[in-house]
Amino acid sequence: MVKMSVDPAKAKDLQICASSNGEKGDSWEETDELQEDRPGLAAAPKQPKPENAVTIAVSTRVLFRTEREQKVFERHGVEEYLRYQIQHENEPFAPGPAFPFVKALEAVNSRLRQLYPQSEELFDIVLVTYNHAHVGIRLINTINHHNLFIERFCMTGGSSPIGYLAAWHTDLYLSADAQKVREALAEGIAVATVFMPEKQTEVSESQLRVAFDGDAVLFSDESERIFKAHGLDKFFEHERQNEDTLLDHGPLKGFLEALGKLQKKFYAKGQRLDCPIRTYLVTARSAASSGLRALKTLRAWGLEIDEALFLAGAPKGPMLEKIRPHIYFDDQMFHVEGAAEMGTIAAHVPYGVAQKRQAGK
Predict the structure, then answer these.
(1) Of 153, 210, 252, 315, whose CB is crowded by the most CB atoms within 10 A?
(2) Is 95 exposed, middle or buried (CB count within 10 Å of its CB: 0-12, 13-18, 19+)?
(3) Catalytically annotated residue among 7, 213, 215, 221
(4) pLDDT single digits (tens) 160-210
């Protein structure tokens, strides 16, 4: 068992968690045939093949509340930790910060199965944990207690899970280990460290809402570098001069792309206005002076954002409080903290030039 360390630099009073993403092939079948296990009996939900699904990997500490167990491990070591888990294996863990997000994924899957009964283009949730297999009984009991549909487990017994994420064709990884998040990001996996606020805003149970920052999240940190090095005026000048030059992709572009593919399946059935997936761009850019480049880049990529909020440097927290996303991704801890203070589950993407400044503080 390896201690799951957390980067405390900007954590303040928040509890930490994480996320990851990757690219994936495009096998998007659309058939309306009804699958059956045996004559006369409707089949149970079919587990999609990883290469066809949108794979979301979540750590135990993101999905469930495991603070008590973590303290046992830190104070008494792995053997006592394992004994404790076995002794309490019939006691389910309480929901953690990513729990509403996972439930929303399952709600989307339910709608997709109604429209496309045999399609494997679904969210596929993988539980990734450092735990030894002995803890698996408690995890399975917890998943059954909360009526979650999670069939894929990756229990590494203390080893790093990074190598498995590519094998799972992971589109997003949520974890509590900030160091492993950085390692996953270095391997090209879409990932973020999730923070849980002390208070938590209620979110929709029927519509998945995901909010993204722009620079160093959906886009590269090219423009952010100009701003950090030369100030706001040079940033605006650079964006005007490069208005028709596409921004390079950032670490979570692939995840937005995967969400968009699932959204189009609803659009194809005339459900654009009743789509159970909604995406948001929440950026400190200002619309007139630097927003055009961001929107033109998304259009050129063939990606749609349902709502775009250009805040021109205003705080993001109050807007996120109105949106009530299941998760919000940002590369700067200042914005992550502001979102969490308003009750939003916020995730830090440790990518780009802003990380050097934060590390130096």
Answers:
(1) 252
(2) middle
(3) 213
(4) 888 889 888 899 999 988 999 999 999 999 999 988 777 888 999 999 999
Structure tokens at 182: 């950085």
What pTM value is reported for the model?
Answer: 0.84
Burial classification of residue 282, based on how many CB atoms lie within 10 Å of its CB (0-12 exposed, 13-18 middle, 19 or more buried)? buried
233 is an active site residue: no
Beta bridge partners of 64: 95
Amino acid at 189: I
pLDDT tens by residue, 109-124 = 999 999 999 999 999 9
Task: Find out whether 56 and 110 touch, Cβ atoms under 8 Å.
Answer: no
Q: How far is it, in rounded angstroms, from Cα 166 to Cα 144?
A: 27
Cα(45)–Cα(25) distance, rounded to whole angstroms? 22
Q: Where do the DSSP E strands lie in the chain?
A: 15-16, 19-20, 36-38, 41-42, 54-59, 64-65, 94-95, 123-129, 152-155, 170-175, 191-196, 208-212, 277-283, 307-310, 327-330, 346-348
- Of 23-37, 195-209, 251-265, least confident by mean pLDDT is 23-37
> Which of 179-204 are b and which e, b meaning 16 or more Cβ less than 10 Å from the residue's Cβ?
bbbbebbeeebbbbbbbbbeeebebe
Distance CA 218, CA 256 (A): 8
Angle made by CA atoms 350, 351, 352, in degrees to the nearest 5: 135
Ordered DSSP codes for 152-181 = EEEE-TTS--HHHHHHTTEEEEEES-HHHH
> Amino acid identity of 315?
P
Q: Which two tokens stand for residue 180?
A: 């492993």
What pLDDT is recorded for position 36?
39
Q: How confident is the model at residue 260 (pLDDT cuts 50, 70, 90)?
A: very high
Which stretches within 18-169 are classed as H helix? Answer: 60-63, 67-76, 78-87, 99-115, 136-145, 162-167
- Measure the CA–CA gap between 141 and 277, rounded to whole angstroms: 29
Return the CA Rg of the chain.
20
The sign of the dihedral angle between the CA atoms of 4, 10, 11, 17 is: negative
